[in-house]
């Protein structure tokens, strides 16, 4: 069975995963909404809502790792681990992710030149996903940081598997799990090293650590571990799903209760956020998966959630740099009344969803379908 046929066979949507994806993008949108409704607020409620964005992106990371990990494991099971097989996997991923990314990148470059006339940003880094590889990325197309992490995660692990092929080692699911765990350990040690060598120039947690590739690849690999458990330990996945959800929910609530009750922030309590928060967040999300995976909802709400899930990638790309920042450029949010701010917020959501729908229907779908074109199939079958 080729990778194309395999993916067609497993194409049926899992509603529980749509729920997870919809939750993730809505958390991101809520976070960005604070920049319109309460841009200068220092209240704990606004801070909590802003934090939704952090949580939402990590939900995306774990979910993406879970889905892609399952595909890689299936390829291993079918012994499709040659360079040709892996390259086919990469091509399919690139047809899914790169067209949208490059289109929005080019639009952002156009907006920068149109609105600000000039810039000293190295755009080539963005085309190569190097804008945040080991340092904070420039204040341009800022939401692209998470896409760099995902791209490197999906290139690095299959490349490791190819290395073992070259070394004449048999590629097994157990090896995949071991490599995932080793990568998580290495990235964790890297964050500890960052924390121990913290200086005033690297003190900005979100830009200098949370959004940097070499510190965040493990977020994807937690999803790989979930995929392994789902595929090779299905009885435990099913049997302990409620216990797992309880543990994940409790960890999530206790961790955030500690943050908001004590009032600690990343620029105050460095070690907690640098070393512990991000892996614990990934783990708490991961533990919720067995229950969320089985969610069933019928009727209109089912349709709405599925649509939001389908549009989520396009929504993520257009809502901030294309819609929100453009609105902020032409509208002085600080000078508006609360009612006008609420109106601007409504406009932000409506335009974001309309653009995401158009991008998904007329651009994302056609490019995604090219993965199964005769031209591509002939080269990998």
From TrEMBL:
Domain of life assignment: Bacteria
> One Pfam family from the UniProt entry?
Acyl_transf_3
Task: Name the InterPro entries on file.
Answer: Acyl_transf_3_dom, Acyltransferase_3
Select a single GO molecular function from the record's annotations and give it: acyltransferase activity, transferring groups other than amino-acyl groups
GO CC annotations on file: membrane
Its BP terms in the Gene Ontology are: lipopolysaccharide biosynthetic process
UniProt domain Acyltransferase: residue ranges: 16-359
Keywords, comma-separated and alphabetical = Membrane, Transmembrane, Transmembrane helix
Bilayer-spanning residue ranges? 20-39, 45-73, 94-116, 152-168, 175-193, 213-230, 242-264, 270-293, 313-331, 337-363
What is the protein name given in its UniProt record?
Acyltransferase 3 domain-containing protein
């Amino acid at each position: 069975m080729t990778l194309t046929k395999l993916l067609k066979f497993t194409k049926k949507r899992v509603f529980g995963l749509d729920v997870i994806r919809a939750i993730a993008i809505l958390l991101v949108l809520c976070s960005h909404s604070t920049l319109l409704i309460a841009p200068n607020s220092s209240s704990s409620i606004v801070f909590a809502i802003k934090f939704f964005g952090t949580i939402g992106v990590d939900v995306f990371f774990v979910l993406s790792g879970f889905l892609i990990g399952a595909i890689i494991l299936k390829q291993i099971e079918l012994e499709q681990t040659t360079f040709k097989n892996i390259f086919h996997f990469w091509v399919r991923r690139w047809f899914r992710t790169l067209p949208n990314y490059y289109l929005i990148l080019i639009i952002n470059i156009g907006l920068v030149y149109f609105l600000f006339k000039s810039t000293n940003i190295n755009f080539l880094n963005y085309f190569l996903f190097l804008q945040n590889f080991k340092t904070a990325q420039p204040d341009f197309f800022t939401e692209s940081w998470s896409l760099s992490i995902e791209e490197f995660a999906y290139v690095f692990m299959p490349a490791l598997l190819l290395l073992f092929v070259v070394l004449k080692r048999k590629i097994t699911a157990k090896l995949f799990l071991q490599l995932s765990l080793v990568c998580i350990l290495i990235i964790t040690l890297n964050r500890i090293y960052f924390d121990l060598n913290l200086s005033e120039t690297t003190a900005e947690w979100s830009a200098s650590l949370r959004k940097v590739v070499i510190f965040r690849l493990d977020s994807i690999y937690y999803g790989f571990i979930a995929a392994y458990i789902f595929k090779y330990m299905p009885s435990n996945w099913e049997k302990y799903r409620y216990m797992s959800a309880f543990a994940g929910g409790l960890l999530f609530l206790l961790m955030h209760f500690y943050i908001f009750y004590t009032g600690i922030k990343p620029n105050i309590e460095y070690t907690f956020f640098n070393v512990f928060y991000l892996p614990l967040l990934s783990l708490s999300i991961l533990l919720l998966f067995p229950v969320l995976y089985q969610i069933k909802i019928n009727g209109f709400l089912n349709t709405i959630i599925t649509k939001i899930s389908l549009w989520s990638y396009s929504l993520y790309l257009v809502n901030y740099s294309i819609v929100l920042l453009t609105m902020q450029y032409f509208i002085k949010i600080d000078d508006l009344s609360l009612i006008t701010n609420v109106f601007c917020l409504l406009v932000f959501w409506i335009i974001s969803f309309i653009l995401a729908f158009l991008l998904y229907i007329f651009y994302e779908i056609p490019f995604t379908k090219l993965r199964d074109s005769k031209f591509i199939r002939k080269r990998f079958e």
